[in-house]
Amino acid sequence: MIQFALETTGKQGSLAVLSGENVLFERRLGVRLRTAAELAVELNSALQWCEAESYPIDVIAVAVGPGSFTGLRIAVTTAKTLAYALGLPVVAVGSLSAIAAVTVTDDTVANVLVGLNAYRRQVFTAEFSVGELRHSDGINGCNHRATIVSRSEWDGRAAWAKKQTDWTVAADSTIFVPQQRGHLAAPGESIAVGVGRVAARLIAAAKWSPGDSASNPAFTDPFALATRYLRPSAAEEQAASR
Fold first, then answer.
1. Average pLDDT for residues 41-63, to the nearest whole number?
2. What is the signed CA dihedral for 92, 26, 98, 220, rounded to 10 degrees?
C-alpha cells in the first residue's frame, strides 16, 4: 500500500510517500520559502517521482489538526483536491498522534507527551503510550486525542514528564526549551512520516487493502474532510463578543 502523506500543521510543513510504514520519499516545506509557496512545487516533484518509480498512490493521508488555522486549511484543501482528482480515499490523522509516532522510534521510553503552541498563552497537548501508538488495536483511540490547556498547566505537565525515566516530551522550542527544562524530543523524521504511519495503522485496524471498497471506517469522505481546530479563531471570538 502506497500512501501520500501531507501536513502543514504550523509555519512549516512536510510531505512524504510511504509503502506501509517505510519511507520512500520525504520533503520538508517552509525551510527556504513560505510553506504555501513551496507546496505546489514539492507536491509536483513527489507525484512525478511516484510515476517515475512506478509507485501508484493508493491512499491520501493528511494531518487535520490541531495546529495553525491557515496551515491546516492549506493541507486539508490540498488533500481534498488530490483525492478528488486521483479518485483516492483519504485518511484524516490527528496532528499530535502523528508527532508522537515519529518521536518514539525505539523502546527506550514508554510514554510521550506532545505539545504544540496554540498561542494566546495556550498549548495543544496529548499524552500517548508507545504500546497503543504502535498497535492497530490502540491507534483509533490515539487519533482524536488532543486538548487545549493553559500555558501554566502545560509547563507543569512538561516539568513532571521530563523527570520521569519512562517519558519523553515532543514540543517546539517556543513552549519547551531544552536548556531550561530538560531534553527536547524533536522528531528526526518529518511529521508527514508520522501522518503516514498513523494512517497505515488505522487502515490495518480497519482491515482494508488496495482494491477494496473505499467505504471503510478508516476513511473520510473528501467532501466531508474538516479541520480540528479545538477552538474558534481570534476573528471568530471577536465577532461572537459583539
1. 96
2. 10
